[in-house]
Every structure is written in structure tokens, then in C-alpha cells.
Design brief:
The complex is a heterodimer of chains A (251) and B (265). Chain A is of the alpha/beta class and 251 residues long. Chain A contains 9 helices and 10 strands. Chain A has a 6-stranded mixed β-sheet, sandwiched between helices. Chain A has a 4-stranded antiparallel β-sheet with strand order 2-1-4-5, with helices on one face. Chain A starts with 6 loop residues before the first strand and ends with a helix. With 265 residues, chain B is mainly α. Chain B has one domain (2-262). In chain B, 87% of the residues lie in helices and 0% in strands. Chain B has 9 helices and no strands. The longest helix of chain B has 41 residues, at 2-42. Classes of the chains: A alpha/beta (251), B mainly alpha (265). Chains A and B meet through helix 2, strand 6 and helix 3 of A and helix 5 of B.
Chain lengths: 251, 265
């Protein structure tokens, strides 16, 4: 285990409009680890991911990303930390007025001094990783939901992040597309050593892609461990969630 | 008695809320202005996006600005010429319409037409980007939304508004001349009257007004768009607010600008 974790969340509290969404969450993600955050809708898992990415400022607590506390940095300093982070949004969040090429090249053109040829090569390579090379000239509106998610992943990977944060990467996808996304996460982790945090309520997907799962309920982590340990957990809420999720999966 | 107290409390609370919203709006606008000016001065301008916005705010607004200005110039001339010709003042018609266009009508029409056409579109686009997480995606890619979205629109507005103001001036005076000629006023008399009654500062002052209106339209529309919440309905509200607030602020600013620029003349 490395000295410095990739992500270290400490006593994170997030309140908005009088409601407490996160109630002192702590989580440690080691370098090269794939961690899943599981929980029902409204349990605070997406809020936790947004705090980790620095998109929202927590009320209190710390979020250490490779040694920088992103929660307490000014916006221009956060930008530097975000260059080490790739974020894949739930609904892709592709820039709808730009082509697939322009979306994937977006970060490169602004943060790397590269020749056009080199940018073309990186864009092609990242799109090939997600199985979409050749779609460069298409607009997001011409892509299916699964393709948009994969372009979102290619865009996040273009700037060579150390850590990738996935927000519901398989939600709304058919089982084949969901499986492809899972395979991609596993491959990126094995081949590139990427650290990943996957927020999802898709138990099957988390069980096959992650090294560790944290189960969230009402703004707190109520169980944490390997997929097997979570499966064996005797916590009634974990068991209820797994039971519901598996019956939903079977249906 | 008790009911009256509750009613009074509610009235005070409503007023405090309104004050809170107003102060919040002014504060957000101020913060956006400072951030945009800082972005503008940083020199890291998104050239492609700026050119795109210049075409959108400027080039594609020319027909509608020219058309509305031409008919406004025509109708103002229709009233003024019928009065002035009757009292033997037909030789002042050109100057009157030119002065009215340069100082008031051209800047105001430019502001109003661009608000309706582009302010609403800016608020709707940025609002949609906000609710579909595209603004978050920009920040996730370490790109400032102000630098990428607001600065190009502001720069495009500052460059194109004075050009549109000039187009409005020209179209308004041309519209006026067409009507004036129907009252038997010759082109020579019309032009001599313009020369006699208007000064270069009347045009310059009008163009200064358009610069302030550009700031208002772009900043209010961007601020409302970026502050959108709550799905399609939220974007709709933001768009409406952007148009209404921009127009109101244009009329308010116009009075103070007229006072500052032309009161002594």
C-alpha cells in the first residue's frame, strides 16, 4: 500500500438549504484501486463524488487528492488538481455544439502544447480505446446513449488523468452496453493503472469491476469492504439493498 | 389583531426576500463583471468562440436592427415632417431625425433588438448547458466557464454593438429620408439639415451608450443562464428574466447616460 492515497476523504459534511446530505463521510482510495460507491437514489453518493471532484465545496471536512486538499483550494488552484482527475458524468455532459473530435480534443487543446497531428493521434487513440474511432465528425445528438457515455470517457481520458471518477456509468444502458463499460473500467485499471471511483446503484456492475465497495445510506457510509465482504455483510440495510437490486436485475 | 400581525410579518418577510434577491442579483452581476474583465485582460481569448459570437450577435442581427430602425426613422419623420412642413420648418426634418436616431433611437433599438434576439438565446444556451452538466464538464476539464463562455460573448458584444448602432443610425436616417422626400424635402436640404443640427459627438455619445448596453445584455443574460436551476422550466424562467431585466436595465441606464452625455448640449 502506498504512503499517500490517491483520494482521502475525511469527515466530509455537506449541507444545503438546511438539509444535511453528507454526515461526516470518510473514505480512502489507494493508488490503482477501483472503489465503488453504492447506494439508493438520494443516499448522497453523487454529492460525495461532486465533493471529491471539487465541483461543490463541502460545509466541512477534507478531500485530499494526491496530497492536495481540493475542498479548501481557490478555484484556480482546483483547476490544477482537476488536470489529474477525469470525470465521466451520468448523462455524459458532452458539449452538444461540438463534434466528437472537438469534445475529446477540448482539454488537450487548452492544457497541452501539442501539434495538430499529435492531437489527432491522441483523439483517435482514445476513441479506439472506447471502440468509437471513426466517429470524430459526428455530433453528440447523432450518438446513442451508450456511445455518448463512451465519448465522455474518451474525453476524460484524453488529458491522461491519474484518477477517473464515474457517475452512474451504466445507468440507462442495456446489459450489453453496460458490460462494455464495465470491461473498459477494468481494462483501464489493469493496463494503465488508473485509480477509479465508480458511483452506481448497479450492484452487478460494481461487483465485477471494483476492488472495494462503500455502501451509502442517508449521507453515511454504513459498510465498506471487498465485493465479497459486502455480499456477506450482515448489515440489514446492505442485505435489503442487495436483495432489492438482485431481484430488479433478474426482472 | 393577531391576523393583522401575521399579515404584517408576511409582508415584511416578502420584502426582505425581494431585497435579498435584488442584492443577490446585483452581487452576482458585479462578480461576473469583475471575473469577465479579468478574463478579458488576461489575453487568453477563445478566438474561435469569439468569432462565432461576433457573427451571431453582430452579423446575423444586422437585418433585424436595420429593418426596425428604418421603420422607426420613417414613422418619426412622418410625425415630425407633417408638423414642421406646416410651420415652414421642413428644412429641419433631416437634422431632427438624425439627432433623434443618433442620441436615442439607434442605441435603444440596438439594445432592445439584440436583447430579444441574442440575450434570450445566450440565457437559454447557458441555462441548458448548466442543467445538462456541461458547465460542470468545463470545470472538470479545468476550463473556466467565464473564460470560455462569458468573455467571448462580452468581447463580441463590445465590438458588435457599436457597429450595429451605426447600422441602426444609417437605416433610421435612410427610412426618414424616404418619408421626408414624400413631403417634398430634397436630399440636399435633408443632408444640409443633418450637418447643421448634429455634431460628431451626438453619434459618438450614442455609440458609447451601445457599449454600456452590450455590457448589460451580455452580463445579465450570462448571469441568468449560468444561474439556471430546475430543468426546462428553470431555463425558461432564466430566459424570460434575462430579457426583462436586460430591457429594464437598458432603459434605466439610458436615462442616466443621456443625463451624463447630452444634458449639457
Amino acid at each position: 500500500m502506498n504512503e499517500m492515497p490517491a483520494i482521502w476523504v475525511r469527515n466530509l459534511v455537506y449541507q444545503v438549504e438546511g438539509k444535511t446530505i453528507l454526515k461526516g463521510v470518510s473514505l480512502r482510495v489507494e493508488q490503482g484501486e477501483v472503489v465503488g460507491i453504492m447506494g439508493a437514489s438520494g443516499s448522497g453518493k453523487t454529492t460525495l463524488l461532486r465533493c471529491i471532484s471539487g465541483l461543490i465545496r463541502p460545509t466541512s471536512g477534507e478531500v485530499w487528492i494526491e496530497g492536495s486538499d481540493i475542498a479548501h483550494l481557490p478555484e484556480h488552484e482546483k483547476m490544477k488538481v482537476r488536470l489529474r482527475l477525469g470525470i465521466v458524468f451520468q448523462y455524459s455532459a458532452l458539449f452538444d455544439f461540438l463534434t466528437v473530435y472537438e469534445n475529446v480534443a477540448f482539454g488537450l487543446e487548452r492544457h497541452r502544447r501539442l501539434l495538430r497531428k499529435e492531437i489527432d493521434r491522441i483523439v483517435s487513440e482514445r476513441l479506439a480505446w472506447v471502440g468509437l474511432d471513426g466517429t470524430q465528425k459526428l455530433y453528440p445528438s447523432q450518438l446513442s446513449g451508450g456511445m455518448r457515455k463512451r465519448v465522455g470517457l474518451a474525453r476524460a481520458l484524453a488529458i491522461d488523468p491519474h484518477i477517473v471518477l464515474f457517475d452512474e456509468p451504466t445507468s440507462g444502458l442495456d446489459p450489453v452496453n453496460a458490460y462494455q463499460i464495465d470491461q473498459l473500467i477494468t481494462r483501464l485499471n489493469r493496463e494503465l493503472g488508473l485509480t477509479a471511483v465508480v458511483v452506481s446503484h448497479d450492484v452487478v456492475s460494481l461487483m465485477r469491476t471494483t476492488d472495494k465497495i462503500a455502501m451509502m445510506e442517508a449521507g453515511e457510509i454504513i459498510a465498506e469492504g471487498t465485493p465479497e465482504a459486502i455480499r456477506q455483510s450482515e448489515h440489514p440495510k446492505v442485505q435489503a439493498f442487495l436483495k432489492m437490486a438482485s431481484s430488479e436485475h433478474l426482472e | 389583531m393577531r391576523e393583522e400581525l401575521v399579515w404584517q410579518e408576511e409582508a415584511v418577510s416578502e420584502r426582505l426576500n425581494a431585497l435579498h434577491h435584488t442584492l443577490g442579483f446585483i452581487g452576482a452581476l458585479w462578480v461576473l463583471l469583475i471575473a469577465s474583465l479579468r478574463g478579458l485582460l488576461s489575453g487568453r481569448i477563445e478566438l474561435k468562440e469569439t468569432l462565432h459570437q461576433m457573427a451571431f450577435i453582430g452579423a446575423t442581427s444586422v437585418p433585424i436592427v436595420a429593418l426596425t430602425s428604418a421603420f422607426t426613422g420613417a414613422v418619426v419623420t412622418l410625425y415630425s415632417a407633417s408638423l414642421l412642413v406646416d410651420v415652414g420648418g421642413g428644412s429641419f426634418v433631416g437634422g431632427a431625425i438624425s439627432l433623434a436616431m443618433a442620441r436615442e433611437l439607434a442605441p435603444i433599438l440596438t439594445g432592445i433588438m439584440v436583447t430579444a434576439r441574442c440575450g434570450s438565446a445566450i440565457a437559454a444556451q447557458l441555462g441548458t448547458m448548466k442543467i445538462t452538466e456541461q458547465i460542470d464538464a468545463l470545470r472538470a476539464l479545468a476550463v473556466s466557464p467565464v473564460q470560455y463562455l462569458v468573455v467571448p460573448r462580452l468581447l463580441a458584444g463590445l465590438v458588435m454593438f457599436p457597429i450595429l448602432g451605426t447600422v441602426a443610425n444609417f437605416a433610421g436616417v435612410m427610412g426618414g429620408w424616404v418619408v421626408a422626400s414624400a413631403f417634398g424635402i430634397t436630399l440636399n436640404t435633408f443632408l444640409r439639415s443633418i450637418q447643421l443640427l448634429t455634431e460628431p459627438f451626438d453619434f459618438v455619445g450614442g455609440l458609447i451608450k451601445t457599449l454600456v448596453f452590450a455590457l448589460i445584455v451580455v452580463l445579465v443574460s450570462c448571469q441568468q443562464g449560468l444561474g439556471s436551476r430546475g430543468g426546462a422550466v428553470g431555463v425558461g424562467h432564466a430566459t424570460t428574466r434575462a430579457v426583462v431585466l436586460s430591457m429594464v436595465l437598458i432603459f434605466v441606464a439610458n436615462y442616466f447616460l443621456a443625463e451624463a452625455l447630452f444634458a449639457e448640449r
